[in-house]
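Board notes (copied after class):
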Amino acid sequence: MESAGEYGSQHSPMPDVSTDVDILHLIPKPASIEDTGLSQWLLADLACKHLAESGVLDLGQIAERMALPGIVIEELFHFLRAEGRIELSSRRDDSPLLRFNLTDRGRILAAEAQSRDGYVGPAPITLELYERIISAQSATLYPMTREFTESLFADTVIAPELLGRLGPAIHSGRAIFIYGQPGTGKSYLARRLKRALGPPLYLPHALVAGDSIIRYFDPSIHKPVAREKEPNNIVPTRVDDSRLLLCERPMVVAAGELTMDLLDLQFDSSKRLYVAPLQLKANGGLLIIDDLGRQRIPPETLLNRWIMPMEERRDQLSLSTGQHVSVPFDLTLIFSTNLEPMDLADEAFLRRIGYKVRLKPSTPTEYRSIWQQCCDQLGIEFDQEILNYVMQEFYPKESVPLLPCHPRDLLQLSTDITAYLGKPAIDKDAIHWAWQNYFLEI
C-alpha cells in the first residue's frame, strides 16, 4: 500500500450535502459578559493576570489578548475600576484608546488569582457550549459514499475489498482495529483516513470547568486554516466569537510514549495549569493508538480505558480537586498493531470495536504498481528489467513477503549507493547492495 504522495490533496471534494454545517446560531458574538457564559469574577481575574504579565495595556490590546469584543472589555473594565483593581495610565501619542494598569490592590488580587489558576490567554468557552459545537461539527454528519472513498484513495494502491470497508468504518464513527505484520502500511493507512473526516471545524483556545480553565488549543495538533483559502462549499458558517479558531480536523498519534496520565486532565502544579488530554484534543478528528502492545502500560489496561467512552460517546475526566467532568468523545479511535487482536484483548472488548481490518502483504500486481509509483515519486526512470530481477531473484529465494513498504525503501537505498559511486542510473548491483543492506545480510 503506497501512494505517490503521503497525503495527496489536502482538500478532496466532500460528498454533496444539503446544507453547510450552520453553527452561527450556537455561537453568537458576545455583546456582554453574560453572553460569554462566564462569570465576571473569572474574566476579571483573567484580565488582571494579563495586566500583571504585560504592565500596561489599552482596551484594544486586552480585547485581542482575551479574544473578546471591545464592548465586553469595556463592561469588564468598568467593573474592575469599581473594584479598585485597575487605574488609568497615560495615553500613547499613536493611539486614542484608554490604557490601564493594575493598582496595588489589583496586583495583590492578580497574584492570588495566579496562585489559584495559572492560565493566561484567550477567554475560555463553557463545557456546555463546547459540547454543542462539537456535536454540530461531528464528522459523522458528512456521508461517506463509495465514490467519495474511491476518490480519496485514487492515488493509493489498495485492495478494493479493503477500500470497501474503510468508508463505512469512518462514517460510523466507531473504533477501528487495524492489524497485520510490520510493513503492510497500517500507520500509513490510519493517518491517511484523516482526509475522509470532513471540512475544517471550529475549536476553542480553552475550556472552563468549574473554577478551573483548561488549556485546549495545542499548536502541534490543531492547525488553523485561513477561510479564504478553503473551498466555499465545505466551510462551516463563519462565527464571530474569537474564542474559537477554524482548524483542520485534528489527528493525534500516540505510540510507545503513551502513558495513562496523558489520557486524563494534566495538572502542572508549578504553573497551576490544566492541559486537555489527548482524546479531548482529538475530538472531531482521529486518535490513533499506534503500535498497540508496545506502550509502557499493559494493553488490557489501555483498552479498558476506552470501553465506556466507545459505548457512551462520552468521557469522564478528573480535576485535581477530585471533581469529575463529563466531556464529548466524538472522534474516530483507531488501534494499529503488529500483534494478533486476540493476544491483546478479550472477545468482549473486540465486540465493542465496530471494524477489524487486517492488512496483508501485496499481491505481485499491487507490488508492481507500488514500485512504479515510487519510481515516479523519487524521479527514477522505471526499468522493468530491474523490477523483474527483484521479484524473481530475491523474494522467492529468501521467502520474503511482498510488503508495500519495500519498493520505496529499496529504491531509496539504491539511489544512495548509485550517487555515491557516481553511476548514471540504478542497476542490478545497486539493487543487490540495497537488498543486503536492508535485510542485514552484509
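Comment from the instructor: The first helix runs from residue 33 to 36. The chain has three domains: 39-122, 127-358, 364-438.
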